[in-house]
Amino acid sequence: MAWLYLLVAGVLEIVWAYAMKQSQGFTRLWPSVITLGVMAGSFGLLSLAMRSLPLGTAYTIWTGIGAVGSFVVGVVLLGEHLTVMRAVAACLIVTGLVLMKFSSPG
Transmembrane residues, as ranges (predicted)? Predict the structure, then answer.
């Protein structure tokens, strides 16, 4: 169950990062409210996952899901540039996440 909590927490991190971008520096009400609410949910699920997963594993995977997911959202939804170097960097992060998962108990 901890891995499911961690996965959902990571997805929520992508949502709050996108909402934060849409808030334009917390100057727009609803994107700001969504950012803070989803952020609380993401942190809450991360804390549940950390009950049984090691800190280093849980935090690394949570931030990795958020980083790569936000990168994809930026490219797909926001029209950010996709270069070979950025794509390779994202693939390296995913590789690190897979290695972290397979090297962790549970």
Answer: 29-50, 57-78, 84-102
Give the sign of the dihedral formed by CA 1, CA 90, CA 88, CA 60. Answer: negative
Tokens, residue 35: 């950012």
Give Dmax over CA atoms of the chain in angstroms.
Answer: 43
Size of the chain, expressed as the number of residues it contains: 106
User: Domain spans of the chain?
Assistant: 2-102
Each residue of 73-93: pLDDT tens digit? 999 999 999 999 999 999 999
The 8-class DSSP code of residue 105 comes to -
Q: Are 70 and 20 in contact (CB under 8 A)?
A: no
Sign of CA dihedral 40, 59, 69, 25: positive
Specify the pLDDT at position 106: 60
The letter for the amino acid at 14 is I
Contact 104, 53 (CB under 8 A): yes
